[in-house]
Design goal:
alpha/beta; 2 domains; 22% strand
């Protein structure tokens, strides 16, 4: 553990931020590999006395920051980890970096299944790093979950994240496209969740280079209108959900009404478009019959 005075650290931090980049990315760097949490950083700014203890030296942190600025590589990939809700997750360019807004999916689940002792069977389609499934499995230890992904490398990361986050055994991973690995679960699911690729082709082409050049295209591009995968998931969901089973989908900011119509067409009820913290209709949920 390396020690540095708060004054020296703040001087160094100011110098790094003067090179460019944003404070949020820099805070991720300090938290993930420096060992200085956001709350620690706030305290340092108020109380400049005393020393800080770093997990890595300033030279290493600076070289990582310089690489981020030079190549626009997401800081989470350079660190190899990210924080999501109360989880520390390994991430590589084989998986999408879990976004803060996606954390609200877990709150939607909490609103549906209010008691942590509830026992239900859930599936996540396209798990990536495993963030959503792991959070649900930990929150509901009496429940069981299955998570799918088309990419074996992603499943390897998700499995490792689950093992590192929990001593439980209520979550299993299956390789395959959307519902295809879950034939044995037909008619058995109380809940299905997906944050599928939903970016329309024309918008994908205009994404910032730190997203387009580094994050997996297969996890972002949703076809010409962005609804290719959402359409497939909704159409096949009735075969896998129990009657009164729930489907929760994350969608593009302007897709809520279209997703709602797809759910109605496939005999879902209790449909709701749920807004994220920015007031955007980020999630669409429905109950099967």
């Amino acid at each position: 553990m390396l020690s540095i005075s708060a004054e020296d650290f703040l001087f160094w931090k100011k110098k790094q931020l003067s090179k460019g980049g944003d404070q949020e990315a820099f805070a991720v760097l300090l938290d993930c590999i420096g060992g200085i949490s956001s709350s620690d950083q706030s305290l340092i700014s108020i109380n400049r006395g005393g020393n800080l203890h770093l997990k890595k030296n300033l030279e290493f942190l600076e070289s990582t920051w310089n690489e981020h600025l030079l190549n626009s590589c997401p800081i989470q990939y350079l660190c190899g980890i990210t924080f999501w809700r109360d989880l520390e997750l390994e991430v590589t360019n084989k998986v999408l970096i879990p976004r803060p807004e996606t954390e609200l999916i877990i709150d939607i689940v909490f609103n549906i299944f209010r008691k942590k002792s509830e026992k239900f069977l859930f599936a996540e389609l396209g798990t990536g790093s495993g963030a959503i499934s792991i959070a649900i499995a930990l929150a509901y230890p009496s429940s069981d979950g299955v998570a799918t992904d088309i990419d074996r490398d992603a499943l390897e990361i998700a499995t490792k994240n689950y093992i590192n986050s929990s001593k439980q055994s209520n979550l299993k991973f299956y390789c395959g496209n959307w519902w295809s690995p879950l034939e044995s679960f037909k008619g058995k699911l109380d809940l299905a969740i997906s944050n599928p690729p939903y970016i329309p082709k024309d918008i994908y082409e205009k994404l910032p280079k730190e997203v387009k050049n580094f994050e997996p295209k297969v996890a972002l591009l949703g076809g010409d209108d962005g609804l290719k995968h959402i359409r497939e998931i909704i159409q096949k969901a009735p075969s896998f959900l129990k009657e009164k089973g729930w489907l929760i989908l994350e969608n593009h900011f302007d897709q809520g009404e279209k997703v709602k119509q797809l759910l109605i067409k496939n005999k879902f009820t209790s449909i709701e478009i749920v807004k994220d913290l920015s007031g955007i209709g980020r999630f669409t949920i429905g109950r099967y019959k």
